[in-house]
Design brief:
With 283 residues, this protein is mainly alpha-helical. The protein has 14 helices and two strands. The two termini are 16 Å apart.
């Protein structure tokens, strides 16, 4: 996993080299290369490995996924959204540069992600269209952006568990889910629906973990401000059902993920190893 993360980081640098120099490029690289888990691209590459594919041919697609994720973080942190000061252990993009530059950096990463997929030589044209469609549906108004919209709507309103799950499914689950779907699409497998549902379960579990860490972790451990959900009057699994019940929900969701994995004709061990690391994460 560490080797894969380093390969992604190195390729991100190479893909940004041809960009015109200036503050926007600097802001893009600042946010892209901040210490992060690279969860979504690693999920994509690991599923490819599980289908017995050489993932190195698809590093550019993995980087495109990370660019879309990073763009969403930059915009999430803006004063008009969550107004955060810290991200991945350093100042947020708009704090390090300025708000206008951060907006442009996010826009540029969104644009660059699709161009990278369209320009990669390891995919035929039909597959490029399929992958682009999957990624931009998941990150668009019916996917991640819808989740962001609902998250903002409930900032000063109490959401119930069903509404909270809907937010997490779209804001977090969509991009996690599509990362695995895209790998299945490349492998030309019929498992897309299974990966989609598995991704939603994993995304929800991941977000509940964040809810718990927001009240049990520290700024140093998480690389971002803790207690922000409470400050922003957001409903969370912890605020609705408590830490213990939230942890139980995480375990139930991971069990559902394991069952879906075992039902597929893949190298189960590779996926399970990664999922166990996610389950045990502390940041």
């Amino acid at each position: 996993m560490d080797t894969m993360k380093e390969e992604i980081n190195q390729r991100l640098v190479k893909l940004c080299e041809p960009l015109k120099d200036g503050r926007v490029k600097d802001a893009m690289l600042y946010s892209l290369l901040a210490p992060g888990k690279r969860l979504r691209p690693i999920l994509f590459l690991t599923v490819l490995r599980a289908y017995q594919f050489d993932y190195h041919q698809y590093l550019d697609v993995a980087c495109a996924i990370e660019m879309i994720h990073t763009y969403s973080l930059i915009h999430d942190d803006l004063p008009g959204m969550d107004n955060d000061d810290l991200r991945r252990g350093r100042k947020t993009c708009h704090k390090e540069f300025d708000e206008a530059t951060a907006i442009l950096a996010g826009d540029a990463l969104l644009n660059l992600g699709v161009n990278i997929i369209l320009q990669t030589t390891s995919l035929d044209d039909s597959l490029k269209v399929q992958l682009t469609n999957l990624l931009y549906q998941a990150s668009g108004i019916n996917g991640m952006i819808y989740g962001q919209q609902q998250d903002l709507y409930f900032e000063n309103r109490k959401a119930d568990l069903s509404q909270l799950e809907d937010i997490h499914k779209h804001k977090t689950g969509e991009l996690i889910s599509v990362s695995m779907q895209m790998a299945a699409c490349i492998a030309k497998k019929s498992d897309l629906d299974a990966w989609k549902q598995l991704g939603f379960d994993l995304g929800l579990a991941f977000q509940i973990q964040d809810d718990i860490l927001d009240v049990t972790g520290t700024t140093e451990e998480l690389g971002k401000k803790v207690g922000s959900d409470l400050e922003n009057h957001k409903s969370t699994y912890v605020s609705l059902i408590g830490v213990e019940a939230s942890q139980k929900k995480i375990e139930e969701l991971f069990q559902k993920c394991y069952e879906r994995i075992y039902a597929m004709q893949i190298n189960h061990g590779l996926i399970l190893e990664l999922f166990i690391k996610i389950l045990k994460r502390v940041s």
